[in-house]
Amino acid sequence: MTLFLLSIMVFLGGQVLPGNVGRAILGPFADQRAVDALNHTLGVDRPLLAQYWGWISNFVQGDMGTSYIFRSPVAPFVIDALGNSMKLAAVAFVLVVPIGILGGVVAALNLNRPLDRIISLGGLSVTVLPEFVTGIILILIFGVWLRWLPISAAWPRDAGFFTQLYYLILPSLPLFLVLFGYIARMARSGMIEALDSDYTRTAVLKGLPWRTVIWRHVLRNALLPTITVIATQTGYLIGGLVVIETLFRYQGIGSLIFTAARGKDFPMLESGILTIGIVYAVATLVADFLYSVLNPRIRLGSDQ
Amino acid sequence: MTNSAKAENALEVTDLSVAYRVAGRNRAVLRNLSLTIGQGEAYGLVGESGCGKSTVALTVVRYLPRNGSITGGTISLDGQNVMKLDAEALRRARAESVSMVYQDPGKALNPSIRVGRQLTEIFELGGISGQAATDRAIAMLNRVRISDPMSVMQRYPHQLSGGMQQRVAIAMALANDPSMLILDEPTTGLDATVEAEVLNLIAQLRQELSASILFISHNLAVVSNMCDRVGVLYAGMLVEEGPTEVVFNDPRHPYTVALLRCLPRGGQRKDQGRLDTIPGFLPGIGADIKGCAFADRCALADDRCRSELPPLYDLGGRLSRCFHHDKAQALPRATPSDVAPVPRAAAAPVLRVTGLNKTYASHGHALRAVKDVSLDLRPGETLGLVGESGSGKTTFARLLLGLVPPDAGGTIELEGKALAPRLENRSDDQIKAMQIVFQNPDSALNRSHSIRHLIGRALKRLAGLSGKALEARLNDLVRSVRLTDRHLAVKPRQLSGGLKQRVAIARAFAGDPRIVVCDEPTSALDVSVQAAILNLLADLQSKEDVSYIFISHDLAVVRYLSDKIAVLYLGRIMELGPSEEVFSGPHHPYTEALLSAVPKLDQTETARIRLDGEIPSATNPPSGCVFHTRCPRKIGPICEQQEPPLSEAQPGHSIRCHIPYAELARLQRAAVTEPA
């Protein structure tokens, strides 16, 4: 349902963009008749409903249409770009999830002590900085000044796994900084709640060692809400990368959409956005699934 | 620590002071508290909320909240100084010698770990693992009378009922045979019958195990049934201590005297006099107390009481912290007991309910929450609704109020006119004629409005008043619920629970209602506040001739306020009649069991009738008489096959039972005379 609404919004958004498709492709000096002919070939002179129907019915069958600019099917571009974005997202994800959770847990265990203040305040400050600011600072430090890491994410052809990883570290760092604050804060508040709970008191008063109390009784209940946050942020990791991908000249889905929007390449634009919508939906679904697996109250319901 | 060298006392608390840090200042919660509990002794600690009962428990196990600190004194558990233990020794002490069970077992058990695992981990601490630990866990569950331990072990806490959860919590607490068991309000929030079961279990376990018990409760009757000695706590100080019967039957501190007078006892009724109350409030935590902490609320207090802290007088095996301990019982009443008897003319019923049914659909099954309920209520009368959770009390109230529509067929008549099933189809007059007071005034009052706004709005909406008339009526109403002008400007959170409940009552009375539904209106309140609210309800009733539908699990409270009682079980009326007849009997076997489950202050322990098992599911009620699966007086196959009719045994008193009235009378007389 959400995806359906999204598809309509994307489509209408594409239509609202100013400019004539044929004119944009052929340039300002082309003959009006040639522009009309091109528009007709592309089908953009048809009624809106027909255009939408043609596009969406093909999309659900796996045909994303043909790019106006490249005159070739959109699908390979989108799939390629999505693959690249996923690589970047995966690196950022693998970095930020464990470290973010760890940060939140450590902060909660040291509640109101200096370590907690540092993690909470630090996390919050880097989260509010937009990624193009942190991105540029990081490029300056690690790429220009220290020269430890390449400033472009575009790795050489035939680069192996580790080389690709090496190229992806710098672009994933701004993402890491943005997400770290969110995840650490959720993990921290979940932990505080769980630590204050009656069942934790029960576990402590059973005489269990502190470590067992934390690992067995606290963590699982504390991190349930964090999972939801992580999942929604996964969507962001893949879909919200326009800035980072542009900054690091990375061929991901964000930069693909950006280019398509500039070139009025509607099939490309629409397919790209809808693909991101699908990724979001899948991520949320996975989160709900995980949540219910980890939470017996949802999994088993109540007998009464 | 070896058990062979047991210290003389299981617990010795000496001069204990505890403070909570609030807004940068240490505020005293416990003040020089001393008490001892002998080996195998059960010691009760009573007092109103905020007097520091739970803090005592948490200090003994060294689990104070982050802002709490021990500012003086010592605690010794089995001869071991708890304050001096390092982390590891403290952990061992918790594992081996002290256990705690507290309120709300649903929260005390870990929601995402199976019950079995939560039990076996205790045995693993002692080096027993695998099958041996499982066997021990099963044995422990058997011990707390759980009949099917194997399947309970496999479940998660939320799949168990409250009573079962508390049994599991008790099993966990007793798993390592502790020398000290702390029970902090273990039955608060449980149904009366479940409470009776759990208390019964604790009493039985006491005989099987050697543990000493510290029993904390606000419920004096529960403590009087469970404990050998009792201490009364007030503002973090022990004000009276002694053997339970002695303290409750012959109290020597005005606070104890006043607390006991707040309770409706021995079948007291509203027309026999008001309940006494305690004026004023408990001093806030950290209050600077000169002299006796209770002096401000005590009618016996003189100048000495206000300036000098009374010592704990030793009165031969008992203690009292009062200069006037010898005349404590002469404490003048705070509330005059006289009530003007209201001559009640036989008026036409204000409410008549006939054949009311409510069926919910639950996972494809029909759930009959209310089945075939008919009754009527006269002006100025109170109908008490009694029954366990899930018996349909609240659903019935919601049907009356039009919050949920009943099944087709039944009728609700208000002053002779049929009421529309849904609230939105009722006229304004009908809506304001029927109002409700909820259990929790916190969630019933909008916290962002002032009291003046809350009551004023009710007057505008329900009574249609404005301007001068509204102002006048507002002042009237505020005075009639005994609030003062200074309460009007504040927001609900600045008021205590009792004052908030007064606001809720004022709101309900704004439109001159004919009927007010009171759904557990005093359950969240302390006894002294409860007494004041009950007095208020009784006064308003005699003044306004309003009728109440009063729902409460506290039978003494229901008895005090009600003229008529309906006993509900699985949505059916099992018994309906005048309050006195229903309570004194002969009554339905279910009523009998409910009454016998109530812990009484006056320790005339009769043979307690235990209800086995839990209330059956309403989606699949038992055949025949719905109560037959738990009925202690079941007579035979007829109970399983035929549902008995609700038949009139005496004029106005109906009972739904196959046993004839005379036979019930004989059986129940026999039970009373039978030795316990």
From TrEMBL, chain B:
Keywords in UniProt for this one?
ATP-binding, Cell membrane, Membrane, Nucleotide-binding, Transport
Its protein name is Oligopeptide/dipeptide ABC transporter, ATPase subunit
Q: One short Pfam family name for this protein?
A: oligo_HPY
The record's section on PANTHER family has: DIPEPTIDE TRANSPORT ATP-BINDING PROTEIN DPPD, OLIGOPEPTIDE TRANSPORT ATP-BINDING PROTEIN APPD
- Which SUPFAM superfamilies does the UniProt record give? P-loop containing nucleoside triphosphate hydrolases (SSF52540)
Q: How does it sit in the membrane?
A: Peripheral membrane protein
* Intracellular or extracellular location(s): Cell inner membrane
